[in-house]
Amino acid sequence: MPNASEQALFEIVQQAVVHVLNRKVELNENTSLSQEGLDSITTVRLLVELEKKLNIQFQEEHLSLDNFASIRSIINTLDHYGVTA
């Protein structure tokens, strides 16, 4: 069971994904975001959305599509920035 901070971060990322996809989707931490419609353009929109919401700036080494394949991979990437919710 995730701790409260991780659950809050999951919800922030989930809301950002729903916002950039512009539709309701059922997501768990391992859902393939590309299968839900996240492409390169919406990934960039997601990056910008998360940077604004979390007050961070993604470094170039973290800008791989693999880092944005699922909510779990996004949360793992956010760990590099010490992000907590």
From TrEMBL:
Cited InterPro entries: ACP-like_sf (IPR036736), PP-bd_ACP (IPR009081)
Return the SUPFAM superfamilies for the record. Answer: ACP-like
Q: Which domain of life is it from?
A: Bacteria
Q: Which UniProt keywords apply?
A: Ligase
Which residues are in the Carrier domain? Answer: 4-82
Spell out the PROSITE patterns in the cross-references.
CARRIER
* GO molecular function annotation: ligase activity
Query: Which protein are we looking at?
Result: D-alanine--poly(Phosphoribitol) ligase subunit 2
Organism placement in taxonomy: Bacteria, Bacillati, Bacillota, Bacilli, Bacillales
